Amino acid sequence: MKLSEELTWRGFVGKNTFDDLGELDRGDKTFYWGVDPSSDSMTIGNLAAAMLAIHFIRAGHKGILLAGGATGQVGDPKDDAERALKTLDEIAKNKAGIKSQFETIFRDEKFTLVDNYDWFKEMHYLDFLRDIGKHFSMTQLLDREFVKSRIGADGDGLSYAEFSYSLIQGYDFLHLFREYGVTLQLCGEDQFGNSVSGMQLIRKLENAKADVFGMPLIVNKSTGKKFGKSEGGAIWLSAAKTSPFQFYQFWLNVDDAGVIDYLKIYTFLSREEIEEIAKDHFAKPELRAAQKVLAHEVTVLVHGEMAAKNVEHVSRILFGENDFREISDDELEILAREIPTIDLRENLTAVDALTEAKTANSRGEAMRLIQQNAVAMNGKKIAGDETIREKSLLKKGKNQFVLVK
After folding, report:
1. Which domains, and CATH codes, for the chain?
2. Helices (DSSP H) in 145-217: which residue ranges?
């Protein structure tokens, strides 16, 4: 399948400056995609854009990945309020985290890694105003949606630093055009205006053609909200922020309405494979076969094959598909980080474990739950207050657990 067809089918095509997307099928462009170090980890929103970049690389285009050490010092403007400035130490730490994730996600691809701080650290303010600021129209800058929302009657105002962000990002595109021959920027549609600034600079100062390819915001079809936001906040690629188990569970629980779209965006499965999965999914959605494939593929991409294998096994144990006695030490540690855990001791009973883990509010409630056949230990319902003599998994109802180890 040609790249233009692939991107269209997968849902990656948003605002762009191409008259004919067939230009992309030649595989002869050098593009860049950047991430600011507002955190030491990317989210699954960034991951979607990374998948887009990999499709370009695999189609023959050369990829430049940018860690925004300079733009990170200003902060990407938001629609609702100004970002809190990070310290230089925070930015350095965050930048290292982003670069490490670039290396992981793009491990099978050829790319060049750059940091825009490298070309901004020696730049003088007056030179920047004369050479770059002179070529930006205030009328166009004031017409940006985020500017309108922030300086309108109900807005919180906009600092000069934030307002200048578009100029800095625009210069990135110009610099990369001059140094690497970059003629294309990939971005989310929310960054389209900033990206066009660079395209216009290249046209004005170099009399050359450049383009911007934006991808649409991914929306949860069931809620209408931005995809990737959970009750606990963003879904991170960092295992320290979102554990591999939580990461896997997120994908396992995505909505039926959107799961096939997510397979197209977040995996490299072929059209034929995804269409076959979709056929099975819509025939028996209760089996969640599409979600299981999605969770496996994305977890392998971000955390590796072994981590995916471990969390899959742990998940099957929790929900009764595998025997708890088969659990490995590594998997036991995964469980211990995710659910209430009690240390095994002499004469410990099921009622003790349920109450100490606060899965039951009192010993009386714990006993009533057992008598109501609502508690299982290692996959089997218990009829009384049994003594626990080995590592065990207690389950209350459908999805509350206590680990004894």
Report:
1. 3-215 (3.40.50.620), 229-329 (1.10.240.10), 339-404 (3.10.290.10)
2. 145-151, 160-163, 165-180, 192-206
